[in-house]
Structures are given as C-alpha cells and as structure tokens.
C-alpha cells in the first residue's frame, strides 16, 4: 500500500484503473510492476512467455504516472517510447495506446460508461501535469506504419506522451541523426527522446546491437550526470543476459486460471525431414491437410521469394476458387498495401479476431514479418525450421490462448541443404548451425506416443531454463558484431548544425543493427514530382530541402535486400527497353542523413553502383509496382493508380492537408495546378500555406511560351505548419505580441516540469530575446512588412529565403542579448545566449559563414562554439538538447496562438 496525501493507493485502485483502460483484470506480475513504477524502481527486463500481455506496460506506466500526479510527486517519466521490431507489420502497442487515449479523451462515453468514474480520475490527474496547452491528457504518436507522425509528441514536453516507433526511426533520432530530419529537428527530437523518457525495447533478444546501444547511452548519461536521464526497459520472451534486474512471473501468476490455461496450451510439434528440392511441396502438403476441417492455418517461411512460391502452389492445390481464403504477409510489402492488408483483408482480420467463426480453412503465408508484435492466434502452424528465438516467436502465434477444446498441430519442415560445407560461409553458415542447434534443443521436449513433441509454453519454458547461456547462444540468430559507442563519436553526432559530410562523421546504422555480413537493404518510393525536379536540374541542396519538408513517410516505402532491388530494377529497365530502345528515367537517391542527388535508372542498375541503405525515389512513369501485394516487380512497366501515396493517404488517415501544387505565372496571371490530381485554380488553394518551394523556371528564362515562371510548392494546413516550420508560420503576429506569448508559454513549461528556478528564469529570458533579431530591416523586408514602425514576428507572406542574404535572425538576437545588462549579470548567462542562438537548429556548434560578415561577428561566432562545448559538458548531450527543445516547444505553441491576448495581460504571464 502506498500513501497518497490523506488517502492510500492500493491494488484495489490499480485493479479498477487497469480494468477501465483495458477491459481486463490485471495479472499478479502486472500489479508487481505497478508497485515498482509507483516508487520509481524500474526493472531492466521483463521476461515473460508470449501471450501474457507484455504490452500492458503502457497502461501500467500511465496509471503509475497518474497516481504520482495525484500525490504531487512525479517520479515516473512523462514520455514512454515503445520500440517495435522493424519486421513488425502492425504493432499491438499502437492499438493499445490509441484505445487508452480514446477513453481518456471521452471518459463519459456510453461505450465504457461503467468505467467513467475511474477514467475521469485518471484524466484529471494527468491534466494537472501539463502546461495546459490542450485538454487532451495524453499524446499518442506513431513513427511507423499506417499513421503518419501526428507531431503531438514533439510540441508539448509537459504532457504525458506515448511514442511508438521502429529501431531505425527512434534510434536515429536518439543519436541526433533522425532519418529525414533537418537541422532544426535533429536536436529537438534527440532531446525529447533522450530525456524524461522510459524507453521500452520490445523483443529485445532479437536485436542485441540496439540493446547494447541503449545501455551505452544510459551509461554516458550517468557519466554526464544529466538531470533528466532516460530509463531502458527490455521486454522479451527469453533473455540471454542474466546480469540485469529482471521481473518475471511470480507464484501468484502461476495460480491464475487464465495464465495457467495459456501456459499449458497444447501444441503438438512434428518434424518432417526433406531434401531441398521437396521443401515447397512438403510445406503445402502439410498445410493442405487442414483443409477438411475449418481452421486458421499460419505458414511461416524464411524469405519473401519462398512465401510467394508457397502461396502460388497452395492456391493451385486448393483450387481456383480459393484465392479469397489466403493472404500473403512479408516485410517487402510497401507500407500502403501492408496497411490495407491489416485494415481490409478478411483473412488477416480473422487471424486477429480470436472469436471469429470461419466456414472453411483460411491460410496466412508469412515471413518473419508476422512473427513479432502481432496478436495473431492461429489454430495450426506449418513452418520451416529456423533459429530458436524465431521458433519461440512463431509458437506464440498458434493456440495463443489455450483451452480444453483447443489443440494445435505444428508441422516443422526441416530441409537438408545441398553442399553445406562448400557453399555456406559467414552468417549463412552460422544460421545453418543455429537451426541445427535449435532442432537438437526442441527434440528434448517431452515426446508423445504419436511422435509429436509437447510444445506448450510451460514445457518450452522449463526446457529453456535448463539450458546454459552458451547453448542458447548457439541456437539463437547469430549475433552481429556490436560496434562500441565512444565519447568522440557522440560529440560528432551532436554537431547537428553541420549537415554536410566531414572527417570523423559516422553513420548510425551500424550502431542500431550491428556489423554483420547480412545483405544490406534498399528502399523504393514512387513520387510524381521526380521528373519535374530532374528536368529543372534542381541542385542537390534544394533536393535535400524538398524531401526534408515533403518527407517520405513509412507508408510510401518498400524495403527489400539491395541485391533483390538491383535485380528487379535491372529487369524493369530491360522490359521498358523492349518497347523503347533508349528508355530511361530520372531517380532521386536519398541517404540516411537526407542528402539527395539525381541519377537515372540506367546508372543505378549498373553492377558497380552501390544502392546499400539508400532510398531510391522513382517517378511514377517508371512503373515497377506489383499492385496486388505491393511488392517491387520488374515486369510491371505500366504506371498504376496509387503509386504516389504521399498526400492523399495522409489526409485520409489523420485529416491533415498536405498537398503538392505547381504554381505558374502565365501572361501575368497566377495559375495553380495540383500535382496529384491536376485540379486547376486561379488563386492560392484555400486553407493552405506554403511550406517549401522549389523554383523550376525563373521568370528570366522564358523557356516555355507564355510561361513567365514556374515553381513546385508544398502546401500544408495551419494544424501542422507550426511544428514543421515555426520560423515562417503564416499568420499576422507582431514581434511584441509574439515575444510576450512565448514568454508566457516558456514560463508555463518550466513551472510544469519543476526545473530549478535559475533554469526557469533563464528559459523565460531566452524567450524574451529569441526573436529580437527579426526587428532588423532585412528580416522585416523578407516578411513583407509595409510598416517598419510595427515589426512583425509572423506574416502571411514571405519572400524567398535568398532575400535574407544569409542573415539569421537568431544571430541578430544574440548580438542584442550579449550587451543586455540583465543577461550579462545572470548566473545562467551562457545558457540564455545558447538557447537564443540554437532555437532554429544552428549554434551546434556554428552558424553558416554568410551570417558572419564582420570581424566583430567572427568573435561572436567563435564564442557560440565555445559556449556550446562548455554547456554540453555541463548538462550532457541530451540534457542540453532537451533544454533547447523546451524553448522550441514554447515557440511552436506561440506560433499556434493557443491563447488570446487577454491571457497575456494576466499575472500568470509574469515569472
């Protein structure tokens, strides 16, 4: 029992709150975890069999946070960052988080009326934690899959937030190198993920390199004595490292009827040994035997090619009318089609719905993409033999809930490869050895009279507990070589204002996934603007700016091994050239840091061209998309509908308008044409504002008859403009108004987070000065201000950035702040000046040369670099980035104008 003011919070409170959020009563281990969270004592690992609700850590964290808020002492973390495996097609974590958010947003809904009192208690407690920018008590954002990033997690550091993402998306942001992020967002994202955050690493045993990275970051944060360090919690069905603080099932759990039923779920494993040539036939034979009795059968194989071959043969065996009874699930499906599969495919939906009734057998053929993070519950399983860690995951997707009336048959087809010793090297040979070790281990399970092995979770658990670590390691997927992270490397990564390559700069992928001889990956995207950008010979820098603004979302991307991508693109070019001998199309290549260049298809398909870990943006004219499954197809030369899904899909999912338009001036008349639909207007698209512009034709060129100029514009709505580009938000706001509003927000944020009074005051003073450089004539001219006596901070119209001539308003603000007496004598002088300098992503550690045009300015710029180094040493890399993020969040809030002018005159504004 825990004291809370004049009342006590006990397990009865937890039980009713957990039931209100999840519709389930908690297990014993979940109550134990709540006790740990409530007192701020976090385990390092939660080690549980699959199917026992590891994702419930989300509501447990939230309930503990709310309980602490009721008491007025926050020990927990305001952000929970849930990391899912990149193989995952749809993650249960997002489903749970959104369900919780829906209930807290509308606690009195008739759908959960019986829990209204409990939900209102939680909602009210969570609202007391935030700065009051929103009446929504919880922010939920996903950086993968169906939903585009809704920006909620990055705009208010005081509001409890759940962020779900992959290793690549979260890990790159944590290391100041967010994929697709620009100079402004990289330190912002690193600060918010690396501070005041609980990092939950799901299925951690599958990605040991990332586990090592997270532990290294925690170590460096402790060495730097950061005030708000992150905490790492690993979730696993079987951990290899016994030196960590582990929470697992207790005696109370083993007596629970539901847990007992799941642990003893009957799974009969049978091994079938075949030669390599008979493998696909045997897989289909074992799958077909379940056709007589209606059931859900999942079929796992190791590669997308095998999955497609198995599906083709299985459908042939079942007959021509069977196509509606089978679905394909691989990691090489483009995000758009993958999400349609999840939302619309009746076969896939039936596997997710445990109570669904079927009238004939259905089949889901899957690769490892269907092994983790999905609450699938098949009746039977057919699969090839793989490593022990993957076999554990697969077994967790069959007869998941158990019961007296259920018994699953698991047929494992073991193929003997040809010429093992001569042809298998490196990871390939290690994989073969791991599968052999797995077979040896699984063969020790209790064997029945019918020569099937008892693969219940309980039996599997006892078997694993009796293995030593060396034997388990031999059976697990080969560990990659883990690259150690050093102080020098982290210092280099934190220099985010330097976007171009420089000596010593490292790529983050080896730290996220380790070093191995596995085949590298390449990503494919289709965009309609590629041909326009190529024809206009747009510079590399401008291409990079365009794709940072009009960023590529997960649903647009198709991922596959580089060798398979190269082969498919070569076939695509060859098939095009059957009809047009010299056919070629432009391709825009993006690297992991967002640098861009334009090549052509014939260049990138050359055998010596390296496509590893690049994103190739193809024009829709190239074709290459197999529309039924959303896979790369070198035989598909005809462009298909929905190849370019950049904007219509985003609007469909979360309602935010995000459109690309061509603007032309023809005989002095403005003409607008929407790129995707060819809709034509003679005026600016209503409700939209210019976020990025690429000049395709200058007015002086006069290339096309009657066309004076042409530009490609990214137009967005005001709901997302401030988080994306607070510097140039399209609204009328005077500089005096803006500085007063941001001062208010900065104070609210600082007080809500209970940071020290000196830091609170420093943040507010930085807010007061951060935009004073906008009063300079060059910036007012850029903002099209016709009245220089009333300087603007925000305008409805801006000139092109080149009219600033390299001027940065924050550098101008810095010059004014340096001579201010209050700042000169402030104990946090250096921090105030740095926050002013860095609030748009510069000063980490430098400003661009064009800003520094006098000898006096050179001295100021040199001090910027010195100041950054000293402050980073004092606050830590992520600690300093977090403080910078606080000011940016206040700036975003001020740009959104969440409060009216009457509030600005209240006592609450003053700090």
How are the SSEs placed, and which strands pair?
Elements (H helix, E strand, L loop, with lengths): L1 E3 L2 E3 L1 H12 L5 H11 L6 E3 L9 H15 L7 E6 L7 H14 L10 H12 L11 E4 L18 E6 H8 L10 H10 L2 E5 L6 H16 L7 E6 L9 E2 L3 H5 L1 H7 L2 E10 L3 H10 L7 E5 L3 H15 L7 E4 L5 H10 L1 H7 L9 E5 L13 E5 L3 H8 L11 E10 L3 H4 L2 H17 L10 E2 L2 H9 L3 H7 L11 H7 L15 H5 L7 E7 L2 H6 L4 H10 L8 E4 H15 L9 E5 L5 E5 H4 L10 E5 L5 E2 L4 E2 L15 H7 L3 E9 L2 E6 L5 E2 L6 E10 L9 E11 H7 L8 E2 H19 L3 H13 L7 H6 L9 E3 L14 H10 L2 H4 L4 H10 L16 H21 L1 H20 L4 H4 L7
Parallel strand pairs: 3-8, 3-9, 4-6, 4-7, 5-6, 7-8, 10-15, 11-13, 11-14, 12-13, 14-15, 17-21
Antiparallel strand pairs: 1-2, 10-16, 17-18, 19-20, 19-21, 22-23, 24-25, 24-28, 25-26, 27-28, 29-30
Descriptive report:
With 911 residues, the protein is α/β, with parallel strands linked by helices. It is 40% helix and 17% strand. It has 5 domains: 11-255, Rossmann fold, CATH 3.40.50; 265-475, 3-Layer(aba) Sandwich (Rossmann fold), CATH 3.40.50.300; 519-652, no CATH class; 656-720, no CATH class; 730-909, Hypothetical protein af1432. The strands form 7 sheets. It has a 7-stranded parallel sheet, sandwiched between helices. A 7-stranded mixed sheet has the order 12-13-11-14-15-10-16, with helices on both faces. The protein has a 5-stranded mixed sheet with strand order 18-17-21-19-20. Helix 28 (735-753) packs antiparallel against helix 29 (757-769) and helix 29 (757-769) crosses helix 33 (829-838).
Provide the domain count. Answer: 5
Structural class: alpha/beta
Number of extended strands: 30
Cα gyration radius (Å): 29 Å
Strand order of the largest sheet: 5-6-4-7-8-3-9
Determine the oligomeric state from the structure.
Answer: single chain
**Helix content range:** 40-55%
């Amino acid at each position: 029992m825990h004291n809370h003011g004049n009342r006590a919070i006990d397990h009865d409170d937890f039980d009713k709150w957990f039931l209100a959020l999840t519709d389930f009563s908690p297990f014993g281990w979940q109550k134990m975890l709540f006790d740990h969270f409530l007192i701020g004592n976090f385990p390092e690992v939660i080690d549980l069999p699959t199917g026992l609700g590891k994702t419930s850590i989300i509501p447990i964290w939230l309930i503990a946070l709310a309980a602490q808020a009721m008491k007025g002492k926050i020990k927990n973390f305001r952000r929970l960052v849930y990391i899912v495996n990149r193989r995952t097609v749809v993650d249960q974590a997002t489903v749970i988080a959104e369900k919780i958010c829906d209930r807290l947003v509308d606690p009195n809904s008739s759908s959960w009326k019986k829990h209204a009192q409990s939900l209102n208690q939680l909602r009210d407690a969570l609202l007391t934690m935030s700065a009051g920018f929103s009446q929504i008590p919880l922010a939920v954002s996903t950086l993968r899959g169906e939903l585009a990033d809704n920006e909620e997690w990055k705009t208010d550091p005081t509001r409890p937030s759940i962020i779900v993402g992959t290793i690549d998306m979260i890990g790159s942001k944590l290391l100041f190198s967010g994929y697709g992020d620009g100079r402004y967002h990289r330190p912002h994202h690193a600060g918010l993920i690396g501070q005041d955050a609980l990092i939950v690493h799901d299925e951690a045993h599958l990605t040991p390199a990332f586990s090592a990275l997270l532990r290294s970051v925690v170590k460096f944060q402790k060495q730097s004595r950061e005030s708000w360090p992150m905490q790492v919690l690993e979730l696993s069905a079987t951990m290899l490292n016994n030196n960590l603080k582990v929470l697992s099932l207790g005696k109370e759990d083993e007596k629970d009827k539901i847990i007992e039923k799941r642990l003893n779920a009957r799974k009969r494993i049978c091994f079938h040994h075949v030669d390599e040539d008979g493998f696909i036939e045997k897989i289909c034979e074992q799958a077909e035997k379940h056709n007589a009795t209606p059931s859900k059968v999942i079929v796992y194989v190791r590669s997308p090619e095998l999955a497609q071959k198995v599906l083709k043969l299985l459908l042939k065996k079942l007959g021509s009318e069977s196509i509606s009874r089978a679905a394909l699930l691989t990691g090489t499906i483009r995000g758009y089609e993958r999400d349609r599969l999840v939302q619309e495919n009746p076969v896939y939906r039936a596997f997710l719905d445990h109570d669904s009734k079927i009238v004939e057998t259905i089949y889901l053929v899957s690769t490892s993409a269907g092994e983790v993070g999905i609450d699938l519950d098949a009746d039977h399983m057919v699969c090839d033999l793989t490593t022990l860690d993957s076999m554990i995951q697969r077994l967790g997707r069959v007869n998941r809930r158990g019961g007296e009336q259920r018994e699953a048959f698991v047929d494992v087809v073991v193929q003997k490869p040809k010429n093992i010793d001569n042809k298998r090297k490196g990871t390939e040979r290690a994989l073969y050895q791991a599968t052999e070790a797995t077979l040896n281990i699984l063969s020790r399970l209790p064997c029945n009279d019918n020569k099937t092995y008892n693969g219940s979770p309980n039996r599997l658990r006892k078997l694993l507990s009796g293995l030593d670590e060396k034997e388990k390691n031999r059976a697990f997927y080969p560990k990659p070589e883990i690259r150690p992270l050093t102080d020098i490397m982290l210092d280099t990564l934190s220099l985010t204002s330097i976007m171009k390559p420089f000596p010593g700069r490292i790529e983050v992928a080896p730290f996220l996934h380790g070093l191995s001889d596995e085949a590298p990956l390449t990503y494919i995207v289709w965009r309609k603007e590629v041909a326009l950008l190529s024809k206009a010979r747009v510079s590399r820098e401008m291409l990079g700016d365009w794709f940072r603004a009009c960023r590529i979302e997960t649903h647009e991307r198709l991922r596959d091994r580089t060798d398979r991508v190269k082969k498919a693109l070569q076939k695509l070019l060859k098939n095009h050239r059957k009809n047009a001998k010299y056919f070629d199309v432009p391709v825009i290549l993006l690297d992991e840091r967002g640098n861009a260049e334009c090549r052509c298809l014939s260049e990138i398909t050359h055998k010596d061209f390296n496509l590893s870990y690049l994103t190739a943006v193809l024009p829709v004219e190239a074709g290459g998309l197999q529309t039924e499954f959303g896979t790369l197809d070198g035989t598909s030369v005809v462009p298909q509908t929905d190849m370019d899904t950049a904007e219509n899909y985003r609007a469909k999912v979360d309602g935010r308008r995000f459109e690309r338009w061509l603007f032309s001036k023809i005989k002095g008349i403005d003409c607008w044409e929407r790129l995707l639909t060819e809709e034509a207007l003679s005026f600016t698209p209503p409700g939209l504002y210019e976020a990025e512009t690429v000049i395709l034709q200058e007015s002086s060129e006069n290339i096309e008859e009657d066309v004076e100029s042409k530009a490609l514009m990214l137009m967005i709505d005001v709901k997302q403009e401030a988080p994306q580009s607070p510097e140039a938000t399209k609204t009328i706001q005077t500089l005096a108004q803006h500085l007063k509003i941001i001062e208010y927000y900065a104070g609210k944020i600082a007080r809500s987070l209970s940071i020290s009074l000196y830091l609170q005051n420093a943040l507010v003073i930085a807010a007061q000065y951060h935009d004073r450089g906008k009063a300079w004539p060059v910036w007012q001219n850029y903002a099209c201000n016709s009245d220089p006596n009333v300087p603007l901070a925000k305008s409805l119209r801006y000139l092109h950035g080149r009219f600033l001539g390299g001027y940065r308003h924050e550098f101008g603000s810095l010059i004014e702040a340096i001579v201010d007496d209050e700042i000169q004598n402030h104990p946090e002088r250096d921090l105030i000046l740095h926050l002013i300098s860095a609030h748009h992503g510069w000063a980490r550690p430098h400003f661009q040369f064009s800003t520094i045009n006098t000898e006096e300015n050179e001295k100021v710029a040199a001090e910027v670099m010195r100041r950054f180094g000293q402050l980073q040493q004092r606050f830590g890399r992520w600690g300093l980035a977090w403080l910078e993020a606080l000011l940016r969040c206040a700036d975003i809030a001020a740009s959104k104008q969440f409060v009216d002018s009457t509030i600005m005159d209240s006592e609450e504004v003053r700090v």
